[in-house]
Design brief:
Strand content of chain B: 35-45%
Number of helices of chain A: 20
Order of helices and strands of chain B: EEEHEHE
Largest sheet of chain A: 2 strands, antiparallel
Distance between the termini of chain B: 12 Å
Number of strands of chain B: 5
Number of domains of chain B: 1
Largest sheet of chain B: 5 strands, mixed
Number of strands of chain A: 3
Structural class of chain A: mainly alpha
Strand order of the largest sheet of chain B: 3-2-1-4-5
Radius of gyration of chain A: 22 Å
Order of helices and strands of chain A: HEEHHHHHHHHHHHHHHHEHHHH
Radius of gyration of chain B: 14 Å
Oligomer: heterodimer
Largest interface: A-B, 51 and 41 residues
């Protein structure tokens, strides 16, 4: 698996890594640029009260299909025009990113278009009232029964993706993978989510502060416990060498694939180690995405914010964590609504995402410290220096967009420069309709990149077994406990 | 002076290379030793050489790059 390509025969000369390296060539930075662009567009719309974001297509619960989509500002254009405009604008902007990242543009555009169509179909199907409406709204839609599957559109999107990822012909799969970038799409959505938290913080400042502070504390507590336990167990019971154990421990306890790659670099491990561990992380994150939200809704309904935070502490890719957070938010609110309780949307999701973001932030520092320890004490290479710039290079840049969006909205709201209503006019289409569509793209793409057959491949069995045992036996119970310690008794504020 | 090299791990060996130099070794320590020897031969005594060695991330599978944008970046300093 994951065979390395041949090295380029003629490498570029004199390419020194600087602080701005990757600013226009990595998905992380492009998530920052595109997410920030949409948020700023929303803020300009709020200032000028012009419908600059009104074209963003919004998907509605429907009983007659012509009412399944609408422009965010309905008066601006017809539903079909909003869908086409959204497709054109999203395509152009993501294609600009793809161009700068030197992807094959033609392949990207074709694959992206297919993914866009699949996401749209999933969205429309899943928002059918009979499938998704809670019983409290049956009368509104003229229904006498229904499945009450809140979040069904996400499940459909994931299933479609998984079918492609596991059953489609190899050639088609290779082709569609050109645009199946769940981490890119979710990071754009997370920047938009920052705007949502900023907007909500203006209304509920205490909640937002709690999520921020408790999320950071929970992350540190988890770090300190997870890593040494995972490292010890893999060394003691699975016979991993130091490099395997360190990459594994980081992957399972910090931020998944990125931590595994960063640790492999810090410990100077061959690329095959993080590649194998990453394949396992991605597969298990998808399993967690499918299993955890319904289980948490069923068995931990009285602790919705703890449940959300526990996802951030246990699911190891940003895409799967945010996707699971969104599902859990839908499931929990649907269950609450069926009981006559109306919870504000997005708080459970934000608990999941904020916790994960804190984990992501620390990876640069952790990788740097590990590299220093490894070079100085384990391998003793006196001529080698660990560049401090690694901390910055490994810092997730989309996080800057998330906090920028959040603090910008909070500053505008708290200072009284704009009212909540004015802000919502411009920003709501971004933090609502756009964010949800990019979440849906993520669900389709997570399915596409998850290939369960990889678990059968040679050399992966022992690592996968260790991962499964430690993830479900230690990381998850500890994550639930830590989330409960820091968030117990907290529920989302009532919906306004 | 500064030397820029690309680094890959291929067929159980580390390979550091640019247009003029190509060093191959089983371990990074061995690679560094061989590189030191090569640079000594090329540039002689009295030189301070900084080697900037960036892992060729293009050798990673495309699907993995979205999760983390960089792998290795090594800086070595040799005083001859």
């Amino acid at each position: 698996m994951a065979e390395e390509k041949k090295p380029e025969e003629k490498p570029e000369e004199k390419k020194e890594v600087k602080w701005y390296t990757g600013m226009f060539s990595t998905e992380d930075w492009w998530a920052f640029w595109l997410g920030s662009f949409f948020v700023i567009l929303g803020v300009i719309a709020a200032f000028t009260q012009t419908p600059l974001t009104g074209w963003i297509v919004s998907f509605k619960t429907w009983t007659s299909i012509e009412k399944s989509i609408a422009a965010s500002h309905k008066e601006l254009m017809s539903p079909i025009a909003a869908l086409i405009t959204s497709y054109i604008i999203f395509t152009i902007l993501t294609a600009i990113g793809a161009y700068f990242m030197k992807w094959k543009l033609r392949d990207y555009l074709l694959a992206w278009t297919i993914i866009f169509i699949l996401a749209t179909i999933s969205y429309i199907l899943g928002k059918n009232a009979w499938i998704s409406a809670p019983s409290t709204k049956w009368e509104k839609y003229g229904l006498e029964s229904g499945l009450q599957l809140g979040g069904a559109h996400y499940i459909f999107a994931l299933i479609i993706g998984l079918i492609i990822g596991n059953l489609a012909p190899k050639k088609f799969k290779e082709f569609i993978m050109k645009a199946a970038r769940p981490e890119w799409f979710i990071k754009i959505a997370i920047v938009a989510l920052g705007a949502k938290l900023g907007l909500k913080a203006v209304e509920f400042p205490g909640y937002a502060t709690h999520l921020l502070v408790a999320g950071a504390c929970a992350t540190i507590a988890a770090y300190l416990l997870y890593w040494p336990i995972a490292y010890y167990l893999t060394r003691r019971f699975f016979g991993f060498n130091r490099q395997w154990a360190a990459c594994f421990a980081s992957g399972i306890s910090i931020c998944g694939v990125s931590a595994s790659i960063a640790t492999a670099a810090a410990t100077r491990a061959p690329a095959i180690i993080p590649v194998i561990i990453s394949a396992i992380i991605v597969i298990f994150a998808t399993i967690q995405l499918i299993v955890y939200p319904p289980l948490l809704t069923k068995f931990w309904f009285n602790e919705p914010i703890s449940a959300g935070a526990s996802l951030g502490l246990t699911i190891k890719t940003d895409g799967a964590d945010a996707a699971a957070g969104e599902l859990l938010d839908e499931f929990m609110r649907a269950k609450a609504e069926a009981m006559g309780i109306m919870w504000e949307e997005g708080w459970i999701l934000n608990a999941a995402v904020l916790t994960k973001i804190w984990i992501d932030i620390f990876i640069g520092i952790w990788a740097f410290l590990l590299a220093v320890i490894w070079v100085r004490y384990f391998e003793r290479r006196p001529g080698e220096k660990v560049p401090k710039i690694e901390i910055w290079l490994r810092f997730p840049k989309f996080v800057l967009g998330y906090f920028l969006a959040m603090f910008l909205l909070m500053a505008l709201g708290f200072s009284g420069v704009l009212t909540v209503e004015q802000l919502e006019y411009g920003v709501k289409p971004v933090e609502g309709a756009l964010r949800k569509f990019f979440f849906l793209l993520t669900f389709v793409c997570i399915g596409i990149v998850t290939d369960f057959k990889k678990l059968k491949e040679a050399g992966i069995g022992k690592v996968a077994l260790a991962y499964a045992l430690i993830l479900f036996g230690i990381i998850t119970p500890l994550g639930l406990f830590i989330a409960w310690v820091f968030h117990r008794g907290m529920t989302p504020p009532p919906a306004s | 002076m500064k030397i820029y090299l690309k680094l890959v791990y291929k067929e159980n060996c580390w390979v550091a290379y640019n247009k003029e130099i190509k060093i191959k070794a089983k371990s990074l320590n061995e690679l560094d030793e061989k590189l030191k020897e090569e640079l000594r031969k090329r540039f002689g005594k009295g030189k301070k050489i900084k080697v900037l060695m960036e892992y060729d991330y293009k050798t990673f599978p495309f699907w993995i790059i979205q999760y983390h944008p960089i792998y290795f970046y090594r800086i070595l300093e040799f005083n001859f």
